[in-house]
Amino acid sequence: MPSQLPSLPNTITDPAIKAFIEKYYAVSNDPEVHDDYADLFTPGGEFSMNDKKAKGTQQIRDLRRAIWAHVPGRSHSPIQIYTHGDDETDLMILGDVSYSHHAGHETGADWAAKMKLEKQEGEVKVAYYHIIVVSSVLLFLSLMVGWEW
């Protein structure tokens, strides 16, 4: 499922970084390319989503396979991308995701992510990617019981 990227901030000037961000979300939304996804990270790269954590190519590949086993389709749509000052390798990304389920229904959630990129041998890679996914149901319930974020 393709996703449309938002306009990137003016602080991202490196064409390689711009192209990498586009590639990252295209690969991220493809259920068949676990190896390609893991290869987007540095060899010691870190990936986490809520309480799920992986470090290194093999763990990232294994976690991705496990995550995709639960849904036949998903589409991550970044809504806004920010840089930390002028550091175009230090990103904060806000977005939403829609999931198609084996039973035929669809659900969605909002997410925020911190992504740190590195260039290795001239190639852009993810060194660190941490995602927090919050379903609207969880957000609603937390507000009903008075949880503070």
Structure write-up:
The chain has a single domain, classed as Nuclear Transport Factor 2, Chain: A. The model has no long low-confidence stretch (mean pLDDT 88). A six-stranded mixed beta sheet has the order 2-1-6-5-4-3. β1 and β2 (52-55) form a beta hairpin. It has helices at residues 15-28, 34-38, 57-68, 136-145; strands at 41-49, 52-55, 73-84, 87-100, 106-120, 123-135. It is globular, with a radius of gyration of 16 Å. Helix content is 28%, strand content 45%. The protein is of the alpha+beta class. It contains four helices and six strands.
Q: Taking all residues together, what is the mean pLDDT?
A: 88
The total of beta strands comes to 6
Distance between the termini: 31 Å
Structural class: alpha+beta
The count of domains is 1
SSE sequence, one letter per element:
HHEEHEEEEH
Briefly, what is this?
Keywords: Membrane, Transmembrane, Transmembrane helix. With 149 residues, the protein is an alpha+beta fold.
Keyphrases for this structure?
single chain; 149 residues; alpha+beta; Nuclear Transport Factor 2, Chain: A; six-stranded mixed sheet; transmembrane helix; NTF2-like_dom_sf
Task: Compile the SSE list and pairings.
Layout: H1 15-28, H2 34-38, E1 41-49, E2 52-55, H3 57-68, E3 73-84, E4 87-100, E5 106-120, E6 123-135, H4 136-145
Parallel strand pairs: 1-6
Antiparallel strand pairs: 1-2, 3-4, 4-5, 5-6
Keywords: Membrane, Transmembrane, Transmembrane helix
Transmembrane segments: 126-147
Protein name: SnoaL-like domain-containing protein
